[in-house]
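Lab notebook: predicted structure, single chain.

Context: the supervisor wants predicted structures on file for every construct in the current expression panel, including those that have not yet been purified. This is the next one on the list. No modifications to the sequence; it matches the entry in the shared construct table.
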Amino acid sequence: MTTKQRLHPGMSTPHTELLRIFGDAWFESVGSASQELLLTQGRLVHVRSREFVVRKGDAANGLFGVVSGVLAASSLLEDGRQMIFGLLEPGDWCGEASSLDGLPRTHDIHALRNSELLHISPPLFERLMQDASFVRAIAVLQTARIRTMFSFFEDAALRSTRARVVRRLLRLARGDASALPRSRRVIPITHETLSMMLGITRQTLSLELKALAATGALSLSYGRIAIESEQTLSALSEV
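Prediction complete. Output recorded below exactly as produced.
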């Protein structure tokens, strides 16, 4: 089933709730006029767990904001393994690159659990691009992606497996795909998902997480990792 088939004109999530979900510093920066257009002219998309929002090579079809659930941006490797580049959570946006250049999608985006998205069509995106505040906000979003990409390259080339695990956990705690940092102590993520983000086996990840838990830096529970000492984790991020 395609995302187009699941689009509908009615908002099942109230305007005030959408404003709260997207009410971070990045969204505030787009300006009140563009905020209103995004929330009132965007359409809701319902995606079931494991369904794809877009596939690599799909034609550009607009911008998406996550209202609820979790999405993963990923690609399949030649050996069939999946590599997850990042997680998109409520308040996050994706699809700005293809919306800007009109070129096909560069990777897959699928739902890790049932999700609701706000779809901004290409014509609406072009209308929003007439607003200088929105243009600058999109530039900030793209800059954040570039900074993240270079950070991942650096980690893969220069850092130990443990340091890579620590640095990704710290990033997840601040919002993996957020243009501007957030903050939380408990990260809702499975070992399987985190291992695919790091490109390591679940066994290797399990050993690293147990070692980190032994330092008191974090605690582990099913589907969750809680940061107990950000200071201790930060000290381990360069090891």
